[in-house]
Amino acid sequence: MKKILLSVLALGATSMAYAQSNQAPANGVLVSQTRNGDVITTRYKIPHNDGRNAEFDLHYTINKCNIIPAYSNNNQQISDLKEFMEQSKDSTMHISAIHIVGYASPDGNATQNDTLASKRAQSLYHYAVNTYHPAQKIDTSHKTFRWSDCVAEVEKSNIPQKTMVLAVLNSTNHTESEKEAALRKMPESWRYLASNILPKMRYADIEFDYGVDEFVTRTSIVPKTEPAKPVQTSQPTTQQPEVVVVDEEMGIIVATPRHDYDDDGDNKRNQRKARKADKKNIKGGYEAIYW
């Protein structure tokens, strides 16, 4: 029978992911965001309503439909079911559907077996509803196994006269009641079936479809800003452009503005005096020099 590993259902169990990106995942809901220096850590919750299932089986004695905790592995299954239902109270778990199926083994009267399978489903239904009061609707169904459903178990067993038993089980020329009659004619094989295989087919199971929200943590690095570069400014020039003053036959007279050479030292003042001595013409405050 199917069993669930409850370790994966630890309270608040989440799936953690790490990525060098702070982009929100699809359907992600922001939970928190913190900053430590240049690192921003963001946590998202991704809701999941389905995608997982848990199944618990309760077995019944022959021709009975009442739950006996001490029978077979029922105590462990009941304990696992209780733990699962406790965990379902966590806000991160979401049960989307609940299914119950009752089963009966193929031996005996077919009509009675069908009724027995239905009653087993109902007994587990009432147990689940009265014990845990689930908010979700529980759908129920039932099934009676056929003799051909025993083939897989017989093949891996040490049943006496295995070849003959398998021939009966796989026969397509006999009814279910004829197959049972043939099997009962092999006493050792029948006792093996009755003790080791048929009891496993008398049970009801409850299955949950559910989802557990996933938590994803992502980080990003805040890029460092470059310091502002100083603005380069050009110094305005105070020197005036040269100006053409006179165009004479002997050449062109170019007038240049007078300069203050006080900051150039004594050498430049001496040069200025020499130029004044050699000048030929002064007009409007400009030095006239022939080219």
N-to-C series of helices and strands: EEEHEHEHHHHEEEEHEE
Sheet/helix structural class: alpha+beta
Which descriptor suits the 3D outline? elongated
CATH class of the largest domain: Alpha Beta
Helix coverage percent = 25-40%
CATH topology of the largest domain: 60s Ribosomal Protein L30, Chain: A
Helical region count?
7
Task: Describe this protein's structure.
With 291 residues, this protein is α+β, with helices and mostly antiparallel strands. It has two domains: 159 residues, 60s Ribosomal Protein L30, Chain: A (2-Layer Sandwich); 48 residues, no CATH class. It is built from seven helices and eleven strands. The strands form three sheets. A four-stranded mixed β-sheet has the order 3-6-4-5. Strand 10 and strand 11 form a beta hairpin. It is elongated and about 145 Å long. The N and C termini lie far apart (117 Å). 20% of the residues are buried. The N terminus and C terminus are likely disordered.
